[in-house]
Amino acid sequence: MPFVSVQDEGERIYLAIFGLWPRISVKWLMSIVVIRERYKRCWTQEKIVKLIDIEGKKFSKIICGSNPFYGHSHFSEARNKEYLVRFNDEYIIQTIRICLSKGINTVESCANERIWKIVSSLQSDTQIQYIGTTRIDETSGLKTHQKKLQFLLDIKADACVIHSQFVDRPQKVDEIKGLMPLIDQIHENNLIAGISTHKVSTVELCEKMNYGIDFYLFPLNPAGFVYPGYDGKETVEDRIQLIQNIAKPFIIMKALASGRIPPCEGIPFVLENIKENDLITLGFGSADEIEETLDIVEKHL
After folding, report:
1. pLDDT for res 255
2. Average pLDDT, the chain
3. What does the pLDDT read at residue 41?
4. pLDDT at position 46
């Protein structure tokens, strides 16, 4: 039997060896079938994640969050240390490439030089997108929301998010002081503007004041967990009603309550209670966690 040329490397190996079938055993043939399937899985980009339109840009419904990249687990010091050791630059790149191969085309992260260097290095051969927030923490020398936003504008992030540190501050009931100029600045640069918030009341106020926000980054999970020490009084039902009653997209964070809820419970719950145009951002601790998450998502969409 002549060699059959096909593009997929796994198919080539399979067909070349299969041409020898009269001289090999059935057991060996079965082994080759297994090898073939493994090759196909490695070389085929499995596009299983839906794309959601936000202001003309297509973001994957599942987004690669970045807390594990920085050793932020919101779970324990031991988990933080584990992540810090594991997630060197090489491992972060590997994790993002696996996400991209599965159809996750977006990374969400606080604005800082390290993550942008990694993301920009992948732009030459991928369609990666970047949602940046103005969160202030130890990962960057930029220590004001204005400086963080300017960084995001300079690199032309696909979407810019004013962080909850800014919008959830104690404030008058009728405004979020200083927010409107930041949103205008984002739109003047032809970029998509969002805010992150933990509070139902903040979203309601933004809608009432017509701040022109394009999407919200907002927590939802079956336990009602937000972060250790959060003193808000919102119920899970309050959050669901808010999400469902506002047409704008929500990017759901804390879907697994920072590791307190297993994916098989948290992800289906969120998918069942959000709109078609909503998304979920999840931090992945390993390649296996990516696979497990997407298997669950595929079953429930």
Report:
1. 97
2. 87
3. 46
4. 57
